[in-house]
Design a protein that fits this description.
Blueprint (H helix, E strand, L loop, with lengths): L10 E4 L5 H11 L8 H9 L3 E7 L3 E10 L2 E9 L8 H14 L5 E7 L3 H9 L3 E6 L9 E6 L5 H4 L8
Parallel strand pairs: 4-5
Antiparallel strand pairs: 1-2, 2-3, 3-4, 5-7, 6-7
Helix pairs in contact: 1-2
């Protein structure tokens, strides 16, 4: 597993407007066409107030996360990791980096929605301390329900979550 925060081959930095093309490549590769965000949506994220957009790069962009902050509450809007880079810790590293960033801005609670059948994403979020808060029927369309997950106390979060050590 890659610890992107400690692996010199992976960097996680704030995304800029000129990252939009790379973000759109990640979006198109990461989601079926019906679930993809548009270029306009991503541009809105990059330009919006209270947004934390981080991009992970190896030789090229491999993932992106978008978080919106409203006072003491943050909402993870989007997490995308290119398919060939999944299961290597990049998603976990992006979420951790994003949570650390918004925590520094006084965020206390974080929510997100995830497809009910997206077991890898649910496992990732639960590993990081998110708990099921609610569910929304047909949130992503007919028959596509969402779980609403919540991290209840971001201020004590890093101390409560076990850090997984990369195997040699």
């Amino acid at each position: 597993m890659i610890d992107a925060l400690r692996n010199p081959e992976i960097s996680i930095l704030p995304a800029r407007q000129d990252d939009l093309n790379a973000i759109m490549l990640l979006e198109r590769g990461g989601f079926p066409a019906a679930e993809q965000w548009s270029e306009r949506s991503w541009r809105g994220e990059l330009l919006g107030e209270g947004r934390t957009i981080l991009i992970a790069r190896a030789q090229h962009p491999v993932g992106v996360i978008s978080i919106k902050t409203l006072g003491e509450l943050a909402d993870v809007h989007r997490l995308v990791v290119e398919p060939r880079s999944r299961r290597r810790g990049i998603g976990t590293a992006l979420v951790r980096a994003g949570l650390e960033r918004v925590r520094q801005h006084g965020v206390r609670e974080v929510i997100l929605d995830v497809g009910y059948g997206n077991e890898p994403a649910i496992a990732l979020y639960q590993q990081l301390g998110f708990e099921q808060f609610s569910a929304r029927r047909n949130y992503y369309g007919p028959g596509q329900d969402a779980l609403i997950l919540k991290l209840y106390d971001l201020q004590t979060w890093p101390d409560r979550i076990p850090v997984r050590v990369a195997e040699p």
